[in-house]
Write a structure and sequence with these properties.
Length: 209
C-alpha cells in the first residue's frame, strides 16, 4: 500500500503556497434558500448526497429525476424523494446516527453547481411524499434537509471534465454492472440472467420496487 511522504497537516501550510480566497468566495455563503438558489434547485436533475456515521465513515449517493424533483418547502427546508435502489439504505443509516448531510446540485449544460450543507431526517409525511410522486408512484420515504449553508460553486471542475460535452469523450470499454456485481460479490449467478434483470430494472422499473 502506498505510504505518503509529504503530508500537509494544516490550512496554514496550504495558504503558505496558495493565494487567499477572493472576497467574493468568502462572503458567498447564505443560511437559507433565496430566490437565486431556489431556481437552481428547481432546475436540477441530478445531485449527490453525502452523509457520515458516528465513526466518520462517509457515503455519497447519487439522486436523479426530472427537474423539480427536489421540493423547496420553505426558505430553510428541502425534501428529497427516495426512489427504489439497492435497498442498502446506507445514507439513511448515517442520517439516523448523525443527522448530517451535504448536497451538490447539477443542472444540465451549466458548469456551476450549487452546494447545500445542513441537517437531515427521514420522513413518511404523506403530504410531502405526494408532492414527489412520478407516474403515480409515491415514494415510501423522503429526506428532509434543514439548510444551514447554501452557495454557488464555480464551474471549473465541470469545464475541465467536459461533463456536458458527450462528443468530447471516447466511449470507454469498461466492465458492465453485472460483471462488477459478480466479481465483487463472488456470485454464482448466471451472467446473462443478471444482465437481463438489470436491464429490465433500468428500462421498466425506475419507479417500482
Amino acid at each position: 500500500m502506498y505510504q505518503p511522504k509529504d503530508i500537509v497537516t494544516s490550512i496554514d501550510q496550504i495558504y503558505a503556497d496558495m493565494r487567499r480566497p477572493y472576497d467574493s468566495q468568502v462572503g458567498k455563503f447564505i443560511d437559507h434558500v433565496d430566490d437565486i438558489v431556489r431556481v437552481w434547485i428547481e432546475n436540477s436533475t441530478f445531485l449527490t448526497m453525502a452523509t457520515v456515521d458516528k465513526a466518520g465513515n462517509m457515503d455519497v449517493s447519487p439522486k436523479g429525476d426530472p427537474a423539480g424533483f427536489v421540493k423547496v418547502l420553505d426558505r430553510k427546508t428541502l425534501a428529497i424523494p427516495d426512489r427504489p435502489g439497492n435497498h442498502r439504505y446506507d445514507g439513511f443509516q448515517n442520517i439516523f446516527e448523525t443527522g448530517r448531510v451535504g448536497l451538490i446540485f447539477f443542472v444540465p449544460h451549466r458548469t456551476e453547481v450549487v452546494r447545500v450543507n445542513g441537517s437531515a431526517v427521514v420522513i413518511r409525511d404523506m403530504d410531502v411524499r405526494e408532492q414527489c410522486a412520478i407516474k403515480g408512484r409515491v415514494p415510501d420515504f423522503a429526506v428532509i434537509v434543514t439548510v444551514e449553508e447554501a452557495f454557488y460553486h464555480c464551474g471549473k471542475a465541470v469545464i475541465r471534465s467536459r461533463l456536458w460535452q458527450a462528443d468530447a469523450h471516447p466511449k470507454p470499454d469498461l466492465p458492465t454492472y453485472a460483471e462488477a456485481l459478480i466479481a465483487h460479490g463472488e456470485l454464482e449467478t448466471d451472467f446473462d440472467e443478471l444482465t437481463a434483470h438489470l436491464r429490465n430494472n433500468e428500462e421498466n422499473r425506475l419507479y417500482d420496487e
